[in-house]
């Protein structure tokens, strides 16, 4: 049984957060900065750039941004820039994560799914290397790992969102 079986509770908590609107090409987070904010994509599309290289394009409602900075008490690890007009639920991350166990479980579930997917991809990569697969196959696995470890991989049954991370 999943830790959070009532996704309606998560939906309600996130829906109660303020919403911020960003136009196309706007910066949401800058690598190296500290904002203390947690953003959850409501709709739109963003590019995640780390060290000058795009590691992901995220369009999935429920995707979380800023959690690593807060949880690890470090600056943001990537630039997040909108690719189109986008809306985010916005929260003071420390306050929300320390005061709302349901949202904290949601964030940890998303992080756990990312880690599990990345672990599986690393095993696949190791197998590809041992069986001397072509570099294009290995390159695709590395790209998958990058995407898995970025802000994507979040799903939420939320006002029509298609999948449930707690299932």
Model description:
This protein is of the alpha+beta class. It has a single domain (7-149), classed as Sandwich (Jelly Rolls). It is built from five helices and eight strands. It has helices at residues 7-15, 67-71, 93-99, 101-130, 135-149, and strands at 19-22, 27-29, 37-43, 46-50, 53-58, 64-65, 79-82, 86-92. The strands form two sheets. It has a four-stranded antiparallel β-sheet. Helix 4 (101-130) runs antiparallel to helix 5. Residues 152-167 have low confidence and may be disordered.
What are the defining features of this structure?
8 strands, 5 helices, disordered C terminus, single chain, 167 residues, alpha+beta
Q: Quote the beta fraction.
A: 15-25%
Widest beta sheet: strand line-up? 1-8-3-6
What is the quaternary state of this protein? single chain
| Largest sheet entry | 4 strands, antiparallel
CATH class descriptor = Mainly Beta
How many discrete domains?
Answer: 1
Compact overview of the structure:
The protein contains 5 helices and 8 strands. It is an alpha+beta fold and 167 residues long. It has a single domain (7-149), classed as Jelly Rolls.
What order do the helices and strands come in, and which of them pair?
Layout: H1 7-15, E1 19-22, E2 27-29, E3 37-43, E4 46-50, E5 53-58, E6 64-65, H2 67-71, E7 79-82, E8 86-92, H3 93-99, H4 101-130, H5 135-149
Antiparallel strand pairs: 1-8, 2-7, 3-6, 3-8, 4-5, 4-7
Helix pairs in contact: 4-5
């Amino acid at each position: 049984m999943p830790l959070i079986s009532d996704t309606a509770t998560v939906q309600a908590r996130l829906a109660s957060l303020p919403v911020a609107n960003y136009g196309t090409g706007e910066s949401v987070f800058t690598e190296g900065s500290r904002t203390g904010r947690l953003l959850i994509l409501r709709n739109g599309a963003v590019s995640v750039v780390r060290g000058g290289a795009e590691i992901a394009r995220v369009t999935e409602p429920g995707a979380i941004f800023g959690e690593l900075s807060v949880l690890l008490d470090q600056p943001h690890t990537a630039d997040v820039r909108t690719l189109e007009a986008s809306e985010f639920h916005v929260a003071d991350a420390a306050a929300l994560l320390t005061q709302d166990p349901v949202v904290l479980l949601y964030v940890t579930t998303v992080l756990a799914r990312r880690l599990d997917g990345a672990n599986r991809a690393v095993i696949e990569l190791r197998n590809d290397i041992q069986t001397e697969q072509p570099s294009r196959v290995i390159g695709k696995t590395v790209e998958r790992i990058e995407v898995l470890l970025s802000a994507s991989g979040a799903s939420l049954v939320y006002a029509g969102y298609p999948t449930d991370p707690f299932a």
